[in-house]
């Protein structure tokens, strides 16, 4: 089945340039965030604020890596696959690359709100906040990130189980076909031998 609209899209120089620029920007963003996260140890912020900033930077890195990987894989498929109807990513791969990036986007907002809460607490307890430990930062990070991990983990497990079931079914089918082939060979050989015996007697 022809896909003229897809063909026009994937042969458009502007579209390919946009996809490539997103991939490059993703990798550059990841490198910058890694550098920035390493510099956080020198910040003169409270430890709670540092924890939240580092958590946010880690999410930026994860998001950048997945977006860059997604666009790179997609760009490779645009050039490597001649059939425009087949250039789309397989559903499982697309899901695995897009879901973490989407979750990171949601977590960005929650972590930024958590930083606002932490700064509000610091202002409220400004006389004694310097003596506070990292409990608040860890708790806010946990609240912002763990629910998304809890949401993703069952989905990942489901994909792993489904994948293992497919492998098991494929191996079972292969073994069954091999057994049938061996039986066919055995009976064919036996039939030829029997025919030879009959022809010799005749």
UniProtKB/TrEMBL annotation:
Q: How does it sit in the membrane?
A: Multi-pass membrane protein
Can the keyword Glycosyltransferase be found in this entry's annotation?
no
UniProt KW keywords = Membrane, Transmembrane, Transmembrane helix
Q: Which Pfam families match?
A: 7TM_GPCR_Srab
Give the source's domain of life in one word: Eukaryota
Localization annotation: Membrane
- TM stretches of this protein: 12-37, 49-70, 90-115, 136-161
Q: Which GO terms describe its molecular function?
A: olfactory receptor activity
Primary place of residence?
A: membrane
- A single GO cellular-component term on record: membrane
Cross-referenced PANTHER family: SERPENTINE RECEPTOR CLASS ALPHA-1-RELATED, SERPENTINE RECEPTOR CLASS ALPHA-10
Family per record = Belongs to the nematode receptor-like protein sra family.
Q: What is this protein called?
A: G-protein coupled receptors family 1 profile domain-containing protein
Q: Which organism is it from?
A: Ancylostoma ceylanicum
């Amino acid at each position: 089945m022809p896909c003229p609209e897809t063909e026009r899209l994937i042969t458009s120089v502007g579209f390919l340039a946009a996809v490539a620029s997103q991939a490059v920007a993703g990798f550059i963003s990841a490198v910058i965030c890694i550098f920035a996260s390493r510099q956080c140890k020198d910040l003169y912020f409270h430890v709670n604020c540092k924890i939240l900033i580092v958590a946010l930077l880690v999410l930026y890195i994860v998001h950048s890596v997945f977006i860059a990987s997604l666009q790179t894989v997609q760009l490779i498929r645009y050039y490597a696959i001649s059939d425009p109807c087949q250039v789309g990513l397989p559903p499982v791969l697309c899901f695995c690359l897009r879901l973490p990036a989407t979750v990171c986007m949601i977590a960005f907002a929650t972590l930024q709100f958590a930083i606002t809460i932490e700064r509000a607490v610091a202002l409220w307890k400004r006389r004694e906040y310097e003596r506070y430990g990292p409990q608040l930062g860890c708790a806010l990070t946990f609240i912002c990130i763990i629910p998304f991990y809890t949401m993703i983990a069952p989905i990942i497990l489901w994909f792993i189980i489904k994948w293992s079931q497919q492998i098991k079914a494929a191996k079972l089918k292969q073994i069954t076909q091999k057994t049938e082939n061996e039986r066919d060979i055995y009976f064919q050989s036996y039939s030829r031998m029997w025919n030879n015996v009959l022809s010799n007697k005749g």
